[in-house]
Protein 1
Amino acid sequence: MNPAVTASLAVGVPSLLVAVISFLFASRARTQTAQAERDKVDAEAYARARESYEAALATLRSEIADARAEITDLREQNRDLRGK
């Protein structure tokens, strides 16, 4: 084998291995970064949905309390009318 070819291979093969390993690590890092971003977006969406759900529950609880108060008032009025 020609010494020039041997020297080229001695330098080229390790360089190629380093390039392949670097590519694999970069691909893995990119995948993990993308997953972390998706998790962040999912967490933010969950927080917004929870806020909306809790606001709706608070509104419904308020409406139920108002309806109960109105029912109590109507029962009292009904009792007063029957008593007369």
Protein 2
Amino acid sequence: MRIRAILAACVILLLWNWNVCSAELPVAGIVKSVNGRAVISRNGQSLEAADGMKILRGDIIQTSEKASIGLIFDDGYRCIDGAKQ
């Protein structure tokens, strides 16, 4: 019984820490297009890149030999009705 309680507490703590850490990473941009195979390495995990996927600061992007990936970075620049914001 005591071991189950300790394991449950560890799982809850692990999930809470994972959510907190994920929320701290700022979005750097998005994947616009993928031609071929591209992988985004994030926090030790390899994620298959897909159109519309968010790119976080610290991500490592790798493509296969003949693949390409289009990225749009969020640099904070805004243009509304022709005026810089």
